[in-house]
């Protein structure tokens, strides 16, 4: 830095005299630091009493009030975010504006001094904005990121001034977080000067979107109401096809329920289709893993949320809470959705599964409880679904996880048919033998099915019985399964559609240990 710069930012009373001497000796328009800042830039952050005098002397010397640094920032950009303790920046800004400073000059990011002041987290941001508006500051200009000054005012705490703050006195600046009241005042001021609450940035997000998305644990309800009263649209879709009401439903913030109430009060649509999957806010609330998912679900249902609204894959909120939500309130959300008309037998479009299929096939800890709740609310344990037309009992018999047997037992105790057929005429017994990968669990499941009346001689679409499939199985406990089937009436001489018996299969492709003399079996 040259002596010129040191004297433009020095705090002592001698600064002005030194500057006058240097100005007599040197030109002033060609002197730059490595960031391209000029004397005027440094003068704008001078916190000494002589700051206004230095600024006046530089302007009288012919320096351009809109001179830019390497980032295309003018001295006014710098002053709009400078966070010195005293209110001196206001005076310096006024002097600069009165001498031709442009409140709408664009920096390299398309931001104006109005953007900077709106997002300035110092305590004088509101006063700076008022001053810029007096000199025709424009609230409608979009930066290259699409942000307007109103967006910046909403983001003032989230970005911690990262875009709107010079590095000067950074540590000191961090201690001056703008108060909630100051943010409200800024938002109100921008709106009163023509700020558009529905202006969308490069991601299609309005100030309302940003407020809901960046909502933490501080109460922003008053700012939210202010934006909505001024015409903010709670149903405006961004580039991801999500509206503020979708983001509120998906939020884990403790203030999300209050925000949701306000959005709905001002016209938010509880059944608005959004996102790549075409989901409603109720769908998002149902899968919300935060502590307030249940409360959000209650609020949306009270405002007409449809428990059976289906996404692009045909999944309803009931499907999603069964398939995804394993949080503490997941079971309560499920009960509430069903109480409010959720259909436990609604088939999705992709797999043609009902929520009961999801629960029967699931591997999560809450699976058995979810099965019980669905059955208690009209779930059909014999409903055919999936590409193969399987019932929930078929799905449970395929479930090789720890809760598979428990789920199978619950379904059988609640009317599940052990001899129900899928589209290939397979019974749950067929599928348990063929596709359950857990040997011990498979044995227990088959034993349970047989005790509940499963037919070991039921033929599938090609006439093959469970006994046929066991003898070609060749797994660790296959012989035990074969004996179990025979103990329950399994017939080793029953022919399939090709005339083949299980006994013949053992001699062709089965294990030799299954080739016992026929009279050793009770046929």
TrEMBL record:
Superkingdom field: Eukaryota
One GO term describing the cellular component: cilium
Ranges annotated as spanning the membrane: none
UniProt key word Magnesium: no
SMART domains, per the entry: ANK
Alphabetical keyword list: ANK repeat, Repeat
A GO BP annotation: protein localization to ciliary inversin compartment
Keyword Repeat set for record: yes
ANK repeats: 35-70, 71-108, 203-239, 277-312, 313-349, 351-386, 388-423, 424-461, 462-497
SUPFAM superfamilies assigned: Ankyrin repeat
Entries under PANTHER family matching the protein: ANKYRIN REPEAT AND SOCS BOX PROTEIN 2 (PTHR24189:SF50), MYOTROPHIN (PTHR24189)
Protein name as it appears in the record: Uncharacterized protein
Organism this protein belongs to: Daphnia pulex
């Amino acid at each position: 830095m040259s002596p010129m710069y040191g004297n433009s930012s020095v705090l002592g009373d001698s600064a002005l005299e030194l500057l006058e001497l240097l100005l007599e000796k040197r030109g002033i328009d060609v002197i730059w630091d490595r960031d391209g800042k000029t004397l005027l830039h440094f003068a704008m952050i001078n916190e000494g009493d002589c700051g206004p005098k230095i600024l006046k002397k530089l302007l009288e010397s012919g320096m351009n009030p809109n001179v830019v640094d390497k980032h295309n920032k003018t001295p006014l950009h710098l002053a709009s975010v400078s966070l010195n303790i005293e209110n001196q920046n206001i005076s310096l800004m006024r002097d600069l504006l009165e001498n031709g400073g442009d409140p709408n000059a664009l920096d390299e990011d398309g931001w104006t001094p109005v953007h900077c002041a709106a997002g300035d987290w110092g305590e004088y941001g509101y006063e700076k904005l008022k001053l810029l508006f007096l000199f025709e500051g424009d609230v409608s200009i979009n930066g290259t990121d699409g942000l307007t000054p109103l967006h910046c005012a909403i983001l003032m705490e989230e970005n911690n001034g990262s875009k709107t703050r010079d590095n000067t006195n950074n540590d000191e600046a961090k201690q001056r977080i703008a108060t909630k009241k100051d943010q409200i005042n800024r938002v109100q001021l921008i709106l009163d000067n023509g700020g558009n609450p529905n202006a969308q940035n490069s991601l299609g997000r309005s100030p309302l979107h940003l407020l809901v998305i960046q909502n933490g644990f501080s109460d922003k309800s008053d700012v939210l109401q202010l934006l909505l009263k001024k015409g903010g649209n709670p149903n405006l879709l961004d580039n991801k096809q999500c509206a503020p009401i979708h983001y509120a439903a998906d939020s884990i913030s403790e203030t999300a329920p209050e925000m949701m109430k306000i959005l709905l009060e001002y016209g938010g649509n509880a059944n608005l289709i959004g996102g790549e999957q075409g989901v409603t806010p109720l769908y998002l609330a149902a899968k919300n893993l935060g502590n307030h998912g249940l409360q959000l679900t209650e609020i949306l249902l009270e405002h007409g949320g449809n428990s059976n609204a289906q996404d692009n894959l045909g999944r309803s909120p009931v499907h999603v809470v069964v398939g995804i939500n394993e949080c503490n309130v997941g079971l309560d959300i499920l009960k509430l959705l069903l109480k409010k008309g959720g259909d436990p037998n609604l088939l999705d479009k992709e797999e043609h599964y009902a929520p009961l299929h999801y629960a029967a096939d699931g591997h999560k800890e809450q699976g058995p409880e979810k099965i019980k709740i669905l059955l208690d609310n009209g779930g059909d344990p014999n409903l055919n679904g999936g590409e193969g037309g399987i019932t929930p009992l078929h799905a449970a018999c395929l479930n090789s996880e720890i809760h598979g047997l428990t789920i199978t037992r619950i379904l059988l105790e609640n009317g599940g048919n052990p001899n129900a057929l899928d589209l290939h005429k397979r019974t749950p017994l067929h599928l348990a033998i063929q596709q359950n990968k857990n040997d011990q669990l498979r044995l227990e499941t088959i034993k349970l099915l047989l005790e509940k009346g499963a037919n070991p001689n039921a033929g599938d679409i090609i006439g093959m019985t469970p006994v046929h499939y066991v003898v070609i199985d060749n797994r660790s406990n296959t012989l035990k399964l074969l004996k179990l089937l025979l103990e329950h009436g399994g017939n080793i001489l029953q022919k399939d559609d090709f005339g083949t018996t299980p006994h013949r299969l053992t001699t062709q492709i089965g294990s030799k240990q299954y080739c016992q003399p026929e009279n050793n079996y009770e046929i």
